[in-house]
Write a structure and sequence with these properties.
The structure is a single chain. The protein has a domain of 101 residues: P-loop containing nucleotide triphosphate hydrolases (Rossmann fold), CATH 3.40.50. With 217 residues, the chain is an alpha/beta fold. The protein is 50% helix and 15% strand. Strand 5 and strand 6 form a beta hairpin. Helix 1 packs across helix 8, helix 2 packs across helix 4 and helix 3 packs antiparallel against helix 4. A five-stranded parallel beta sheet has the order 2-3-1-4-8.
Length: 217
Protein backbone atom coordinates (compact mmCIF):
# COMPACT_ATOMS: atom_id res chain seq x y z
CA UNK A 1 0.00 0.00 0.00
CA UNK A 2 1.21 3.48 -0.94
CA UNK A 3 -0.50 5.96 1.33
CA UNK A 4 -0.50 9.71 1.94
CA UNK A 5 -1.82 10.90 5.30
CA UNK A 6 -3.32 14.38 5.55
CA UNK A 7 -5.14 16.33 8.24
CA UNK A 8 -4.91 19.57 10.21
CA UNK A 9 -2.43 20.23 13.03
CA UNK A 10 -3.61 18.34 16.09
CA UNK A 11 -5.53 15.71 14.12
CA UNK A 12 -3.17 13.02 15.40
CA UNK A 13 -1.32 12.31 12.14
CA UNK A 14 1.98 11.45 13.82
CA UNK A 15 0.39 9.03 16.25
CA UNK A 16 -1.83 7.38 13.66
CA UNK A 17 1.03 7.17 11.15
CA UNK A 18 3.00 5.00 13.58
CA UNK A 19 0.11 2.59 14.16
CA UNK A 20 -0.90 2.39 10.50
CA UNK A 21 2.64 1.84 9.24
CA UNK A 22 3.20 -0.89 11.83
CA UNK A 23 -0.13 -2.59 11.03
CA UNK A 24 0.55 -2.81 7.30
CA UNK A 25 4.30 -3.36 7.50
CA UNK A 26 5.29 -0.28 5.52
CA UNK A 27 7.82 2.44 6.38
CA UNK A 28 6.55 5.75 7.78
CA UNK A 29 8.19 8.54 5.82
CA UNK A 30 7.93 12.08 7.17
CA UNK A 31 9.65 15.18 5.89
CA UNK A 32 10.99 15.82 9.40
CA UNK A 33 12.65 12.40 9.49
CA UNK A 34 14.06 12.90 6.00
CA UNK A 35 15.51 16.30 6.88
CA UNK A 36 17.14 14.97 10.05
CA UNK A 37 18.57 11.94 8.24
CA UNK A 38 20.09 14.02 5.46
CA UNK A 39 21.46 16.68 7.79
CA UNK A 40 22.98 14.17 10.24
CA UNK A 41 24.34 12.13 7.32
CA UNK A 42 26.00 15.18 5.78
CA UNK A 43 24.47 14.61 2.34
CA UNK A 44 24.63 17.37 -0.25
CA UNK A 45 20.86 17.84 0.05
CA UNK A 46 21.20 17.87 3.83
CA UNK A 47 23.78 20.65 3.64
CA UNK A 48 21.45 22.68 1.43
CA UNK A 49 18.49 22.12 3.77
CA UNK A 50 20.55 23.02 6.84
CA UNK A 51 21.41 26.42 5.41
CA UNK A 52 17.72 27.29 5.17
CA UNK A 53 16.82 25.70 8.50
CA UNK A 54 19.63 27.52 10.33
CA UNK A 55 18.39 30.80 8.87
CA UNK A 56 14.86 30.05 10.04
CA UNK A 57 13.57 29.77 6.47
CA UNK A 58 11.40 27.08 4.89
CA UNK A 59 13.30 24.48 2.90
CA UNK A 60 12.43 25.11 -0.78
CA UNK A 61 10.22 22.63 -2.59
CA UNK A 62 12.99 21.58 -4.95
CA UNK A 63 15.22 20.47 -2.07
CA UNK A 64 12.35 18.75 -0.23
CA UNK A 65 11.22 17.03 -3.43
CA UNK A 66 14.72 15.72 -4.13
CA UNK A 67 15.00 14.29 -0.61
CA UNK A 68 11.62 12.56 -0.90
CA UNK A 69 12.55 11.19 -4.34
CA UNK A 70 15.72 9.65 -2.92
CA UNK A 71 13.85 8.21 0.06
CA UNK A 72 11.14 6.57 -2.05
CA UNK A 73 13.83 4.84 -4.11
CA UNK A 74 15.24 3.07 -1.05
CA UNK A 75 14.63 -0.71 -0.82
CA UNK A 76 12.24 -0.63 2.16
CA UNK A 77 9.80 1.60 0.25
CA UNK A 78 9.57 -0.61 -2.83
CA UNK A 79 6.56 -2.56 -1.55
CA UNK A 80 4.78 0.42 -0.03
CA UNK A 81 5.04 3.44 2.24
CA UNK A 82 3.15 5.97 4.33
CA UNK A 83 3.91 9.64 3.63
CA UNK A 84 3.27 12.04 6.52
CA UNK A 85 3.85 15.75 5.87
CA UNK A 86 4.34 15.42 2.12
CA UNK A 87 2.87 16.62 -0.15
CA UNK A 88 1.73 19.88 1.48
CA UNK A 89 0.41 21.57 -1.65
CA UNK A 90 -0.75 20.78 -5.18
CA UNK A 91 2.67 21.54 -6.67
CA UNK A 92 4.26 18.91 -4.43
CA UNK A 93 1.42 16.50 -5.24
CA UNK A 94 2.17 16.87 -8.96
CA UNK A 95 5.85 16.29 -8.22
CA UNK A 96 4.99 13.15 -6.22
CA UNK A 97 2.98 11.80 -9.14
CA UNK A 98 6.03 12.23 -11.33
CA UNK A 99 8.28 10.47 -8.82
CA UNK A 100 5.95 7.50 -8.59
CA UNK A 101 5.49 7.32 -12.36
CA UNK A 102 9.28 7.08 -12.73
CA UNK A 103 9.17 4.13 -10.34
CA UNK A 104 6.23 2.63 -12.29
CA UNK A 105 3.93 2.70 -9.25
CA UNK A 106 0.97 4.83 -8.11
CA UNK A 107 -0.69 5.94 -4.90
CA UNK A 108 -3.22 3.55 -3.40
CA UNK A 109 -5.14 6.02 -1.22
CA UNK A 110 -4.99 9.39 0.55
CA UNK A 111 -6.40 9.26 4.08
CA UNK A 112 -7.81 12.51 5.46
CA UNK A 113 -8.10 12.72 9.25
CA UNK A 114 -11.13 14.99 9.52
CA UNK A 115 -11.62 16.83 12.81
CA UNK A 116 -13.50 19.99 13.85
CA UNK A 117 -11.21 23.01 14.21
CA UNK A 118 -12.38 23.87 17.74
CA UNK A 119 -11.64 20.30 18.79
CA UNK A 120 -8.12 20.80 17.46
CA UNK A 121 -7.79 24.05 19.46
CA UNK A 122 -8.87 22.25 22.64
CA UNK A 123 -6.53 19.31 22.01
CA UNK A 124 -3.46 21.42 21.44
CA UNK A 125 -4.26 23.94 24.18
CA UNK A 126 -4.27 20.98 26.57
CA UNK A 127 -0.98 19.54 25.32
CA UNK A 128 1.99 19.79 27.69
CA UNK A 129 5.56 18.86 26.83
CA UNK A 130 8.30 17.82 29.25
CA UNK A 131 11.30 20.18 29.18
CA UNK A 132 13.58 17.30 30.15
CA UNK A 133 12.60 14.27 28.07
CA UNK A 134 10.09 15.66 25.54
CA UNK A 135 7.25 13.38 26.67
CA UNK A 136 3.80 14.77 25.83
CA UNK A 137 0.78 14.60 28.14
CA UNK A 138 -2.74 15.97 27.78
CA UNK A 139 -4.58 18.01 30.41
CA UNK A 140 -7.66 20.22 30.43
CA UNK A 141 -7.25 23.06 27.88
CA UNK A 142 -7.47 25.77 30.56
CA UNK A 143 -5.15 24.03 33.04
CA UNK A 144 -2.39 26.16 34.54
CA UNK A 145 1.20 25.81 33.40
CA UNK A 146 3.59 23.52 35.22
CA UNK A 147 3.26 20.07 36.70
CA UNK A 148 5.58 17.08 36.67
CA UNK A 149 6.23 14.69 33.80
CA UNK A 150 4.89 11.20 34.63
CA UNK A 151 7.91 9.61 32.92
CA UNK A 152 10.89 11.51 34.32
CA UNK A 153 9.55 14.11 36.74
CA UNK A 154 10.67 17.01 34.55
CA UNK A 155 8.74 20.26 34.27
CA UNK A 156 5.79 20.33 31.88
CA UNK A 157 5.08 23.38 29.75
CA UNK A 158 2.85 24.44 26.87
CA UNK A 159 4.72 25.18 23.66
CA UNK A 160 4.15 28.64 22.19
CA UNK A 161 2.66 27.16 19.03
CA UNK A 162 0.05 25.29 21.12
CA UNK A 163 -1.47 28.53 22.48
CA UNK A 164 -5.12 28.83 21.28
CA UNK A 165 -4.62 31.97 19.15
CA UNK A 166 -1.53 30.46 17.54
CA UNK A 167 -3.35 27.20 16.85
CA UNK A 168 -6.20 29.07 15.15
CA UNK A 169 -3.67 30.85 12.93
CA UNK A 170 -2.00 27.53 12.07
CA UNK A 171 -5.41 26.16 11.09
CA UNK A 172 -6.06 29.16 8.84
CA UNK A 173 -2.74 28.55 7.11
CA UNK A 174 -3.55 24.84 6.80
CA UNK A 175 -6.93 25.61 5.23
CA UNK A 176 -5.36 27.90 2.64
CA UNK A 177 -2.57 25.51 1.72
CA UNK A 178 -4.29 22.16 2.03
CA UNK A 179 -7.89 22.69 0.87
CA UNK A 180 -6.71 22.66 -2.78
CA UNK A 181 -4.64 19.53 -2.06
CA UNK A 182 -7.66 17.70 -0.63
CA UNK A 183 -9.71 18.74 -3.66
CA UNK A 184 -6.90 17.56 -5.93
CA UNK A 185 -6.95 14.06 -4.45
CA UNK A 186 -10.74 13.96 -4.26
CA UNK A 187 -10.94 14.73 -7.98
CA UNK A 188 -8.40 11.96 -8.59
CA UNK A 189 -10.65 9.49 -6.75
CA UNK A 190 -7.99 8.77 -4.14
CA UNK A 191 -9.32 10.62 -1.08
CA UNK A 192 -10.94 8.80 1.83
CA UNK A 193 -11.88 10.75 4.97
CA UNK A 194 -12.47 9.38 8.45
CA UNK A 195 -13.71 11.06 11.61
CA UNK A 196 -10.64 11.78 13.74
CA UNK A 197 -12.67 12.72 16.83
CA UNK A 198 -12.43 10.32 19.77
CA UNK A 199 -9.78 8.23 21.47
CA UNK A 200 -6.57 7.27 19.72
CA UNK A 201 -7.76 3.65 19.72
CA UNK A 202 -11.11 4.54 18.13
CA UNK A 203 -9.48 6.57 15.36
CA UNK A 204 -6.91 3.84 14.71
CA UNK A 205 -9.69 1.25 14.41
CA UNK A 206 -11.53 3.42 11.86
CA UNK A 207 -8.35 3.99 9.87
CA UNK A 208 -7.35 0.32 9.78
CA UNK A 209 -10.88 -0.72 8.79
CA UNK A 210 -10.96 1.71 5.85
CA UNK A 211 -7.42 1.01 4.69
CA UNK A 212 -7.65 -2.78 4.82
CA UNK A 213 -9.41 -2.92 1.45
CA UNK A 214 -6.54 -1.05 -0.22
CA UNK A 215 -3.95 -3.39 1.24
CA UNK A 216 -5.85 -6.35 -0.18
CA UNK A 217 -6.43 -4.89 -3.63
Amino acid sequence: MRLVLVGPPGAGKGTQAEFIADRFGIPKISTGDIFRSNVSGGTELGKQAKEYMDAGDLVPDEVTNAMVRDRLAEPDAVSGFLLDGFPRNVSQADELNGMLASLDVALSVVLDLDVDHEEVVNRLAGRRTCKKCGHVVHVEPDAVEGGACPKCGGELYRRDDDAPDTVRHRLEVYDKQTAPLIGFYRDAGLLVAIDAFGTVEDVTERAISVLAQYAES
